[in-house]
Design brief:
By secondary structure, the protein is mainly beta. The protein has 2 domains: about 25-130, Immunoglobulin-like (Sandwich); about 135-230, Immunoglobulins (Immunoglobulin-like), CATH 2.60.40.10. The chain is built from 2 helices and 21 strands. It has helices at about 175-180, 255-270; strands spanning about 1-5, 15-20, 30, 35, 45, 50, 60-70, 80, 90, 95-100, 105-115, 120-130, 135-140, 145, 150-155, 160, 165-170, 180-185, 190, 205-215, 220-230. Strands 4-12-11-7-8 form a 5-stranded mixed β-sheet, with no helix packed on it. A 4-stranded mixed β-sheet has the order 14-21-20-17, with no helix packed on it. The protein has a 3-stranded antiparallel β-sheet with strand order 5-10-9, with no helix packed on it. The N and C termini lie far apart (about 140 Å).
Length: about 270
């Protein structure tokens, strides 16, 4: 119950009392929509709620996990879809989220709730946030120079993170894979053989690549690294060109050869 009062500018006023009845919905409905923010590695025990439908004999509903979408909320993140609950968490049959978060990030966890009617239940998306501690940073800024047509191998460095670090190129440019034909192996090394054609006739080209590193707990670091690609040198010390045409390298200068040929011709013409 509550009382409503009204007053006009002349000072006249009135009051009335009202009652509001909040009834449960007739059909099963999700109530809990968001949980958190949660702390990485800290135990949680959080009940989730639904309303309506027919409760079980114990007065509850039956809950289960469906899937989880890892949301791309910050720079360096990509949206991922998983069939499992958020890492380190589970939901009990009677609707309690238990566990310790073991991954950083924002998650949209879809859980299913059923009532006593025996129907398929209702899917409930619940948002969970586990804020990052900024514990992973890309250190490498410049990679060793690569030579076109020759095998290349380089190691990038990062500070922080736990377990094995996973490296990848970030963004849609695909400079490494499509242009330079380089990729990260399972050990995190950048390997491959850059083609001569990517130089487009130049002696050398500079490439800027945005890289992303991720640890086992979903910490993420993003950085821009530079890579110089140069043409291989020929025996004469000049860079090789992927062009047609003829080149004379090494040996005696052409002017000396022409002079000697001329002297030989004159000698043959003496009486």
């Amino acid at each position: 119950s509550f009382t409503v009062r009204v007053r006009d500018k002349a000072g006249l006023q009135g009051a009335a009392e009202f009652s509001l009845v909040v009834a449960s919905p007739s059909s099963l409905t999700c109530v809990t929509r968001q949980v958190g923010p949660l702390t990485f590695g800290e135990h949680v025990e959080i009940p989730v709620h639904a309303a309506g439908g027919r409760r079980t004999d114990s007065g509850t509903y039956v809950w289960s996990s469906v899937d989880t979408t890892w949301l791309a909320k910050e720079i360096g993140e990509v949206t991922e879809f998983h069939r499992e609950p958020p890492p380190g968490l589970q939901i009990t049959d009677d609707g309690v989220i238990l566990g310790k978060p073991t991954a950083f990030g924002s998650f949209l966890w879809t859980v299913n709730v059923k009532d006593a009617s025996g129907g398929p239940g209702v899917d409930c998306p619940i948002r969970l946030d586990v804020p990052r501690d900024r514990g992973l940073t890309v250190v490498t800024r410049r990679l060793p120079t690569a030579v076109a047509g020759r095998p290349y191998r380089a190691t990038l460095e990062a500070i922080g993170g736990d377990g094995t670090l996973k490296w990848s190129e970030f963004g849609g440019s695909s400079v490494l894979e499509r242009q330079l034909q380089l990729e990260f192996d399972t050990a995190g090394n950048l390997v491959g053989t850059p083609p001569l054609s990517v130089l487009e006739g130049e002696d050398a080209r500079e490439f800027a690549v945005t890289v992303r590193v991720k640890d086992q707990h979903n910490r993420i670091g993003v950085g821009v690294v530079s890579l110089t690609l140069k043409a291989p040198e020929t025996k004469g010390g000049e860079a090789a060109k992927e062009e047609g045409g003829c080149q004379a390298t090494g040996g005696a200068p052409l002017s000396w050869i022409a002079s000697l040929l001329a002297l030989g011709w004159l000698a043959r013409r003496r009486p």
